[in-house]
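User: Predict the complex.
Assistant: Input components as received:
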Amino acid sequence: MSLELVRVDDRLIHGQVVVGWGQVLNPDLFVVVDDEVAQNEWEQEIYRMGVLATQEVEFTSVSDAAESVERWANSSCRTIVLVSDIDSLTRLCEAAPTIRRVNLGGVHHERDRRLHLPYLFLDDREVDQLLALAERGLEISAQDLPTAARVNLEDLL
Amino acid sequence: MKPRLASAAVRLLVLQGSMNHERLQGIGAAVAIEPLIRDLDGGQNGQRYRAALARSAGFFNTNPYLAGVAIGAVARAEHSGAPLRQVETLRSAIKGPLGSLGDRLIWTGVLPVCASIGLVCATLVHPLVAVAAYLLAFNAVNVAVRWWGLRAGWRSGIAVAAMLSQSVLRRAVKFVGPLAVLSIGVALPVAAEMLTANFDTSVRVGTAGVALATAATSWFLMPSVGAARVGILALGSVLVLGWIW
């Protein structure tokens, strides 16, 4: 119950997450899952600026996160997990079947990515990865803010 | 050479002038940082300037009022000869946390406080005074925050996180939220009293009932319907109920 949200967002900690989702989910902990940020303390210090004084931030690599998901899910700490891209999400969900629902919150434009929603650009490989995850029973939907409409994966592709 | 901070500050006002889904505020960020990187080695025809400008035009998304912190810090990092990779990381990492701080400061703090001041002025003084008071109060903070941010960012460069953690901004964010709740708590009853002065009790009760029902069901309705439609639906319900009555 206390894994409140697993979200793919290349901006990681930002206003929509801390203010938008934070106000309705009231999280105690943000987990940033990103192999590069996990190794860069200077960058972590920047991300720490984004949360409230009462909230914690944890930085982990994808493989470490997969081992910790169970702990977050069973703790009394209300947790939001932020994953930076579809690749990391795929690796995380394959290794951590505890995750049942995923929120797509921000994947922005890059070469070869096509627009599916204003905040969601995906290339063919990422679409295949998401479909494969959905086939394994993962509930995937896109929603940038709690007050915005939720779009299920099959409706946005 | 003195940094062209004033020029960058003016350009920051149009940060969102070329808002688009691909890069969001990217082009605007490049326009704003341009005066600050003009004097990189080689000048405006040099490789350093061109590369820095191109980097600055990539995807960028932050709170517009605090964008100056990022612009200033990135420009300073470009000057200080920080490794390229670090400049890029700084630019992509700082936008999110700044967005979060700025959203809390402005959207859930300063804006509701100023709107409350406007509402109370409109009710107790005069609507035109309310407009003036609102615009003055909001823009005084707006200009001050933007100018402070740009200078603070320029001063700190890659040490921007350490600067922010010590800054007045962090302390302001802590008290501005409760202040906003307090001011709305004062302003709404005052305004509601005036707006409903000529209504009879049944209309007051009916309106309050629809408002309560909307608040109670909004959490379930919003994900599928959207916030704006929920609001319109509530307004429509009041009109239809009133008409049937």
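Helices of chain A lie at 15-25, 41-48, 62-74, 86-95, 124-135, 153-156.
Let me know if you want any component modeled separately.
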